[in-house]
Amino acid sequence: MGKKIRVLVAKPGLDGHDRGAKIVAAAFRDAGMEVIYTGLHQTSEQIVAAAIQEDVDILGISILSGAHMTIFPRIIKLLKENGAEDIIVSGGGIIPPEDIIELEKLGVQKLFGPGTSTVEIIKWMKQVVSHKS
């Protein structure tokens, strides 16, 4: 069966809308993944520290606040500074297509928009983690 995928789901900053993050986290758990949910109002530093401490394969950032062009680059930078650039960074939320292109250039592996099915996200996660091994 192999090692379970470990994923950390995080809600950075002042964004207080976590229903989607909780739904996605539950779907990941139902798919057999080990899920760590950090809760609301986390700093980039707290998120990266938790991802490293929990030895996750994937870090999923849920962001609806519009601060994606600040938060994602900060998380990528902190992961590199801490020698944890092997953690796959992905996320979801309301992110304009032109920002998605820029964030992917910076190292975010995949961003999912509103309405993406959890089946599609899980399929991608399984695929990307199997290629990482």
Secondary-structure blueprint of this entry?
Blueprint: E1 6-10, H1 19-30, E2 34-37, H2 44-53, E3 58-63, H3 68-81, E4 88-93, H4 97-106, E5 110-112, H5 118-132
Parallel strand pairs: 1-2, 1-3, 3-4, 4-5
Helix pairs in contact: 2-3
Account of the protein in words:
- By secondary structure, the protein is of the alpha/beta class.
- It has a single domain (6-132), classed as Cobalamin-binding domain (Rossmann fold), CATH 3.40.50.280.
- Helices cover 46% and strands 18% of the residues.
- It is built from 5 helices and 5 strands, in the order E-H-E-H-E-H-E-H-E-H.
- The chain has a 5-stranded parallel β-sheet, with helices on both faces.
- Helix 1 links the parallel strand 1 (6-10) and strand 2 (34-37).
- Helix 2 (44-53) crosses helix 3.
- The longest helix has 15 residues, at 118-132.
- The chain is globular, with a radius of gyration of 13 Å.
- The two termini are 14 Å apart.
- The mean pLDDT is 94.
**CATH arch. level architecture:** 3-Layer(aba) Sandwich
H/E series: EHEHEHEHEH
Number of strands: 5
Largest sheet: 5 strands, parallel
Number of domains: 1
Cα-based radius of gyration, to the nearest Å: 13 Å
Q: Termini distance?
A: 14 Å
Look up the CATH topology: Rossmann fold
Q: What is shown here, in short?
A:
The protein is built from five helices and five strands, in the order E-H-E-H-E-H-E-H-E-H. With 133 residues, it is α/β, with parallel strands linked by helices. It has a five-stranded parallel beta sheet with strand order 2-1-3-4-5, with helices on both faces.
